[in-house]
Amino acid sequence: MAVDYDLVIIGASPEGIFAAATAASLNARVALVEQPFKGHLSRSDAIYSRTLTRAIGFSKQFKDVSECGWFSFSSNSEITPTPSIQLGEVQSWAKQVLCYQAEYNSLAILASLGVDVIMGSGSFCELPRQAFIVKERRLRSRAYLIATGSAPTILDLDTLEQIGYLTTADLWQENNLESIGDRLAILGETPIAVELAQNFARLGKDIYIISESQRILPAEDPEVSQLIQAVLEAEGVKILTASPVTQVKSIERKKWVQAGDRAVEVDEIILALGRSPNIQGLNLEKVDVKFGIRGIKLNKKLQTTNPRIYACGDVAGGYQFLHIAQYEASIAVKNALFAPYFHVDYRTIPWAIFTTPQLGRVGMTEAQARKRYGKDVFVVRQYFKSITFAQVLGENTGFCKLVVRSNGEILGAHLVGSEAAEYIGTIALALQQKIKLRAIANLFSPFPTLSDILNKSAREWQRANLNRNKTLHNFLKSLFICRRNWSS
Ligand SMILES: Cc1cc2nc3c(=O)[nH]c(=O)nc-3n(C[C@H](O)[C@H](O)[C@H](O)COP(=O)(O)OP(=O)(O)OC[C@H]3O[C@@H](n4cnc5c(N)ncnc54)[C@H](O)[C@@H]3O)c2cc1C
Q: Do 133 and 141 contact (CB within 8 A), yes or no?
């Protein structure tokens, strides 16, 4: 029996909008169902967070350059004036960016591309035939894509509701950012927790990161989380790891958090524990779509346990980065419209954590590579303190760690350094196109730039690789001895 659509997408998330535009550009018949606005979108958090990091970065740079004497201030006072951040202005700027974003990614643009945009909350039904019901319309389609995103995970602790807390979403509401107290406990070890902690510490707040894990950023290479932990602690952040929160209580208008065997007194608790899927009311059980607390269960083709229903982005509890959500959408759309043939391959997709210094990462950690390739794994490191432009910027903290096979195949790259997110893409492309490290050794970046560290690391690997290759090493040695002897 004929159906009305090739693809019905649920959720106008960045990945849902991307999927709809992609499918429409392929002349597929597409519907996109978006629920009435519920006041919070995690893409907004990303923009608010980035804008705050940028503003705080400027004020830190201003303080740093004024201390290194580059500028003289005509004011009579001995004290170097330090800019104080206008959080309200920073938020308005972020709001402006969100307006631009909304313009470029508007549902009206999708409708003009031929997408049937339906505003309403709907749910799946199985009988008499599988469909998505919204506003009394039965949307019958060859395939469906769930892209409803996620919401902040709330800690399941009795007294927490009563004591009160803020999620990462609440921070940007009303004037919470301005009125938040001076002592904060940030619960979680996620990139969001770490970015927030550094920002608040740089705003002069007294910050605790409280994590159940053995280390912050547990998904990252241990050398990366160690360095970022050291930077945060040097900036005054107190990090309590392996410290599950077992109790919160309020005493004399202060909030007490029992974390492991320590109790800390704070003004506010911020939950940055990760994300929970937006699946309420979708009736997934009725259409055999299995899910867990972290998200909808998917195979490598992004099919749910119901092969005609796909999902992508934060609702599946994966990497929770906007660009990765859109990458997943690109795979799901191909599989849904043509044939379920395409697999996701996250090994070639980079991501970033916007602390200062930034993390840029792609591919395997050293431990993952050794587990997979055993002895045929080599690690090469270069430090930003040896990079000219990092010295010019006065941002010498950090390293480039490349994980490579003896044949030069790149398995992973971990860059912790200034603007690392901007040039991790070079290694990601090499990984994606199976380009060997020697090609990066022959890629001379403009001087002086930070990306010079990639070339320097690759050349260091080449040198070490030559030293490991005794035959070639000895051959070259004897060749040049001969040539010297022959030359007059
Ligand atoms: C503090 C913070 C900082 C971040 N920083 C970054 C960063 O620097 N870089 C990065 O790549 N990512 C970052 N992210 C993650 C990024 O924001 C998300 O991965 C990305 O925006 C996708 O989010 P989402 O899928 O949750 O979609 P959302 O933006 O939350 O959209 C979900 C959409 O689905 C709709 N919806 C929900 N339920 C239903 C339903 N039942 N029916 C119909 N529609 C529904 C909602 O109305 C909404 O439009 C950050 C996230 C946070 C919280």
A: no
What integer is the mean pLDDT of 397-419?
97
**What residues flank ligand 1, with Cβ below 6 Å?**
10-15, 33-35, 38, 41-43, 45-46, 49-50, 121, 148-150, 168, 192, 278, 281-282, 313-314, 320-323, 325, 354
Q: Is 167 helix (H, G, I), strand (E, B) or coil?
A: strand
What string of DSSP letters covers 258-303? EETTEEEEESEEEE-S-EEE--TTS-GGGGT--B-SS-B---TT-B
Domains 7-42+92-152+276-344 and 160-273 share a fold: yes
- 7-42+92-152+276-344 to CATH, choices 3.40.50.720, 3.50.50.60, 3.40.630.30, 3.60.10.10: 3.50.50.60
- The minimum-distance atom of ligand 1 relative to the CA of 351 is 11
CATH of domain 160-273: 3.50.50.60
Residues near 102 by Cβ (< 8 Å), separated by ≥ 6?
Answer: none
Taking the CA atoms of residue 463, residue 465, residue 470 and residue 476 in that order, the dihedral angle to the nearest 10 degrees is -40
Looking at residue 175, its pLDDT comes to 77
Per domain, the residue ranges of the chain are: 7-42+92-152+276-344, 160-273, 348-471
Give CATH superfamily name and number for 348-471: FAD/NAD-linked reductase, C-terminal dimerisation domain (3.30.390.30)
Q: Output the pLDDT for position 74.
A: 67
Q: How many whole angstroms from 19 Cα to the centroid of ligand 1?
A: 14
Given a contact cutoff of 8 angstroms between Cβ atoms, the answer to whether 331 and 342 are in contact is yes
Q: Which of 445, 444, 427 is nearest to 436 (CA)?
A: 427
Averaged over 69-82, what is the pLDDT? Answer: 67
84 Cα distance to chain centroid? 28
CA 199 vs CA 61, 162, 351, 429: distances in Å: 14, 27, 20, 31
Residue 105: strand, helix, or coil = coil
Q: What are phi and psi of 296, to 5 degrees?
A: -75, 135
Mean predicted confidence (pLDDT) in 171-190 = 90
pTM: 0.92
| Nearest-angstrom CA–CA distance, 421 and 351 | 7
